[in-house]
Design goal:
Chain A contains ten helices and 14 strands. Chain A is of the alpha/beta class. Chain B is 82% helix and 0% strand. The longest helix of chain B has 28 residues. The chains are: A alpha/beta, B mainly alpha, C mainly alpha.
């Protein structure tokens, strides 16, 4: 395998980003930064699935508006979420007169959309696109685990699916460049515990990071931040620990969106946040503004996803995971 | 790292559930629910209901309370602390039924509520009936042999 | 029997039955749904071999309220029905004895779905 890092010569830009979150995310440490939120997580809808679509709809509208473009200017929508058949995205995108590609990478979808969109804009096949993704605690919980009112206990390594949607407009205008993309491989290390997704995803992040630094001219210290999507506490610790075995030390500049979104001590989220929306809203409203203001120079964003299906888990299968890398730069 | 090595590494480092704390709350809350049941049992007997019916009425009372607390969104908050303390008494069964019913009404009352109400309760009923029937057959054969 | 002792026994034995399940959940990979299934089957078994009935005499609701008590109702119902009707009782006795609890769960669960909607956790 050649395994090349995709270098984007024309350096497409993230022109705008927009985030929509639920009430717990609003109460979290980054609460002030988000563009929109809902008090009851319903966004004025009567089912959780419709609420999730509504978040995506608002995020896309908000991002396009912020970018100064019109809906007409956007050539493509890249959207995905966690629900079966990606219904969250399917219904949200019916509201736009824009061609739509549905993508699925579980919680890595944000990075997948950014990477794919950047490649398309870089190749000048399209001028601009909008990448959007979402997750909703209530719709995921009922699809993947138990009803909301079911009385159960969570394991300390369990993570909390974030309610939120983040959208990004990728075009040739803006301060934040996407300079490199490295797509991940599906990695299965035999983890079967639905309550320890961080451990399931960490090997995929390790694989992508090791492959990146094998080929890259940069060392880990070059980056102001190396940000993983939603490894949570457990997965982050595993990642940092095992990377040392490859001679890669990211302990100084590593951060995880799942740990940034919630206050692990004050909010009852156990090992931290997860879900497509988790990394999307943290990137859209926290990291990108810092890049735009020049407070961060180079950031590696690693969207991690646990490609989990309850059905194959019941059949005794394990949880494959994937991790896509996007190099963002404001230098 | 091989799959097996990694799985062992992960299991070794994963933070364990706080078992002493969990057991304490399971014991206290589970015990309290049983004591409450005893109080209802005595009450119904005091009101002149016979032993068997008083037991059934006690179950129904606890089931009603669980369904109500489930609907009000209180049950899962208690259960998060109580663990097996609310799961093992009949309250856990009632919560499994009513939480599914409430959750699936968005898919309609037949294929949503009607079908999914048994998601967690179904296995319990199935295996209860299976083991009961097995016992019945064995018992029947025994009565034939030993009269 | 002294009322205090009676309630204390209900509390302690009921609590102990729950604690065993908690240990199983925390120490093994058993999911709560499996625990419930195991408890019901164990209830049937212990009643069949005449171990559970003395426990009920001792602990009252402490032994009847946990799901093992549901298994006991099934076993006792089956036994009684077999005595009365022969082999047919093996099929009719179990559900008959637990009809009250099962019907109450379904009826109240259904009514709850009419009245309440699911809410996000705070």
């Amino acid at each position: 395998m050649k395994n090349p890092i995709i270098k984007l010569k024309n350096q497409p830009r993230i022109s705008a980003s927009y985030s929509v979150v639920g009430h717990l995310e609003k109460q979290g440490p980054l609460g002030e930064l988000f563009d929109e939120y809902s008090d009851n997580d319903k966004f004025g809808k009567n089912t959780w699935e419709k609420a999730e679509s509504e978040m995506q709809l608002r995020a896309v509208k908000g991002a396009i508006k912020k970018s100064g473009l019109k809906e007409y200017d956007i050539d493509l929508l890249l959207a995905g979420d966690l629900l079966n058949q990606c219904v969250g995205s399917n219904y949200a995108t019916t509201n736009f007169n824009i061609p739509y590609l549905g993508i699925y990478g579980a919680c890595s979808t944000c990075a997948e959309g950014l990477g794919l969109g950047a490649c398309l804009v870089d190749a000048q096949t399209i001028d601009s696109c909008c990448a959007v993704t979402s997750s909703h605690y209530c719709s995921s919980e009922r699809q993947f685990r138990f009803p909301l009112e079911y009385g159960g206990q969570r394991a300390p390594t369990a993570q909390w699916t974030a309610t939120g949607s983040g959208a990004f407009v990728i075009s040739n205008e803006g301060n934040v460049k996407i300079t490199e993309v490295l797509f991940g491989k599906a990695i299965d290390k035999g983890i079967t515990d639905i309550n320890n997704m961080g451990a399931a995803m960490a090997p995929s992040a390790i694989d992508t990071i090791v492959r990146y630094f094998e080929k890259s001219e940069h060392s880990p210290d070059y980056f102001d931040k190396i940000i993983t999507g939603d490894l949570g506490f457990e997965g982050s610790e595993i990642l940092k620990d095992l990377l040392l075995g490859y001679g890669i030390d990211i302990r100084k500049n590593h951060d995880d969106c799942g740990l940034m979104l919630f206050d692990k001590e004050k909010q009852d989220v156990h090992a931290g946040g997860s879900g497509c929306g988790c990394s999307a809203v943290v990137m859209a409203s926290h990291i990108l503004p810092l890049l735009e203001q020049g407070k961060l120079g180079d950031v590696l964003f690693l969207g991690t996803g646990a490609l989990m299906s309850p059905m194959t888990l019941f059949q005794g299968g394990s949880i494959p995971a994937i991790c896509h890398l996007v190099h963002l730069s404001s230098r | 790292m091989k799959k097996q090595e990694y799985v062992e590494y992960v299991e070794k480092r994963a933070k364990r559930s706080p078992i002493l704390k969990n057991c304490f709350f399971a014991f206290v809350i589970g015990g309290a629910i049983c004591t409450l049941g005893q109080a209802f049992l005595d009450l119904y007997k005091h009101l002149g209901v016979n032993e068997d019916d008083a037991g059934t009425l006690t179950s129904i009372t606890l089931i009603f309370t669980s369904c109500l607390l489930t609907g009000l969104g209180i049950f899962d908050n208690i259960a998060r602390v109580a663990g097996a303390g609310t799961l093992v008494p009949i309250t856990g069964f009632a919560n499994a039924v009513s939480s599914q019913a409430i959750d699936t009404k968005s898919e309609g009352y037949v294929l949503g509520v009607g079908a999914k109400i048994f998601t967690i309760a179904g296995p319990v009923i199935l295996y209860a009936i299976l083991s009961g029937t097995l016992y019945g057959v064995i018992y029947y054969v025994c009565t034939l042999i030993w009269g | 029997m002294d009322v205090f002792v009676k309630y204390l026994l209900a509390f302690v034995i009921g609590g102990a039955i729950c604690t065993i399940a908690q240990i199983l959940i925390d120490k093994t990979k058993l999911t709560p749904a499996r625990i419930l299934v195991i408890y019901v089957c164990v209830g049937v078994l212990l009643t069949a071999i005449n171990v559970y009935e003395p426990l009920v005499k001792l602990a009252g609701a402490g032994a009847t309220v946990p799901l093992t008590g549901f298994g006991r109702l099934i076993a006792n119902g089956v036994k009684k029905a077999v005595d009365e009707k022969g082999l047919l009782g093996a099929l009719t006795g179990g559900l008959g004895a637990t009809a009250g609890g099962i019907a109450a769960s379904l009826v109240f669960g259904f009514i709850a779905s009419l009245i309440f909607s699911s809410k996000p956790k705070k």
